[in-house]
Amino acid sequence: MSGGAGAEAAPNGAAGEFPPDAKRAVYDAIALRRDVRNFRPDPVPEPVLRRLLEAAHRAGSVGLMQPWDFVLVRSAARKAELYRLFREATARAAARYADDRRAAYGALKLQGILDAPLSVCVTCDTARGGPHVLGRDSIPETDRYSTCLAVQNLWLAARAEGVGVGWVSIVDNAELARALGLPAHVVPVAFLCVGYPVEFAPTPMLEATGWRRRLPLDALVHEERWDDARGVNDGGRPATPADAGVRLRRTEDPADRDGPDALGPSAQPDASPRALAAAVPPADPGGARAARVRARLDALAMPRGSMGRVEDLAVRLAAAQGRDAPSAARRRVLVFAGDHGITAEGVSAYRAEVTARLCYNMVAGGAVVNALLRHQGVTPEVVDVGVDHAFGAGARVRAAKVRRGTRNLAAGPAMTRAEAAAAVAAGAAAVRDGPPADVIALGEVGIGNTTSAAALLALLTGAAAEDVVGAGTGVGARARARKTAAVARALARARAAENAPDADPHDEVLGHLAQAGGFEITALVGAVLAAAAAHTPVVLDGFITGVAALAAVRLAPHAADYLVASHRSAERAHGVVLDRLGLEPLLTLDLRLGEASGAALALPLVGAACALLADVRTFAEAGIDPPLDARGAD
Description:
about 40% helix; about 10% strand
């Protein structure tokens, strides 16, 4: 980001004006300053800290009162004590919000006291300078205002040094003063977490999460007198009491979840499962590209085959992308979300409403997948296909809702065939309508979805319930027994309803999805088909995305050419899924989270496989003699 118009030179050159580079640096520090919440543990070197405090101490102050002091907190014990105060204040603040706004608030990471290596409390001495400080007689609060200038100086200097600062304001000031032993005439003004950040985010967190929008400057500039028409809220409209946030809307009857926020069963004609499947070509007809890429790998300046399965991955990516030098520079991570009526059977360790909370946490940057992707510069995209919750317009969750959760698949079909087709179309649209990508990783969120995936796998393969049901979210023996029984009832009902398999595989698979699928699982089917049609490799996550991919391959067998299995999960039937897909996973780490976490871990390996072909020289290119025996024999 450049300094913008503010860094332009004055027309005739003002006296004392900074040189262009120095001026631009000042404006960059202002524009790029961020309220940091995630810190690395390494400490700020003392010389750097000294410069920051010196910068703060050079702040302007009314009457040169210099009312600031700096209390440095480094010990783990003291930080833990202060963390408790802030957590209690945060809980009290959350109670003031209602429903949807409260859920969004709870997902925000509002402080990093325990993460940052240092905390600095900037205080104001209200007695400094005596009772008659120049300029303070008429406006006593100028001592606080002056202290805020010191805070801003410290913050801007920190940004220039690459140090992060987080201003934590949710606390009872009286409790904080007591904890720090402040005299009665000294008040806390700012409690700052200071350290090297995990990242400097491109936009402020509250703006990025949709909590607040940046107001237009023109609406805030008044000429001569206050202009009432310019008062605006965070949406750019005149501020009204109605701007208190969107209230949570839930249906009372779990079976009656269609509402005005639902897309309904209408799918675009060209996005039907049959049309999507027909658009998937074989990745490398005849295998000519794979042969060329393999020959290039064999010629690289290394023992033949010494990079093992990374070489196989490079060949697969090249074939899928249709180019000899594949790329993973542009990466997208799509996480589809939906609720499941089967949770009424007690099959999960979590309540159904947790799905929406998980979505909020992910868009707020606090989920596991966010942590795994942050250093890769990738932000997961959350797509609501069937969550039993009305997300507000600013929630940064893509709206693609077909229905507010599936029906209970143990008692009847999870969805209609029309709804299943709409969910497939929604998954395809999420791929098609987004930015271009070299690689797409897939994940899901949905309490109860391992039960749905297990039932769907059994329908696709003919397996029994006890062969496909696993621990899911970590249920105990009793819950697992309930889960197995629920899937067995669903299979008996579905197989009796279907009577005989459809002669048309498209109709058969759509029927299976309608009987036992989840909206997010069914959307994953459409995402796989759309990505494959665009020659985009798909990195699968775990068991649930694998079952969806298996359904997609039943619709379009060539879709298998575009799949990459990130890992083999701890879910017992995942190995069956991978065997059916003919995939060897890149990792085996006993993961069972979902939410694209395994796919996120595998993406660097995908990038490494591309780099192998792009960056490594052959023996000839490097001027190195090839091995004496090209066959690699001793």
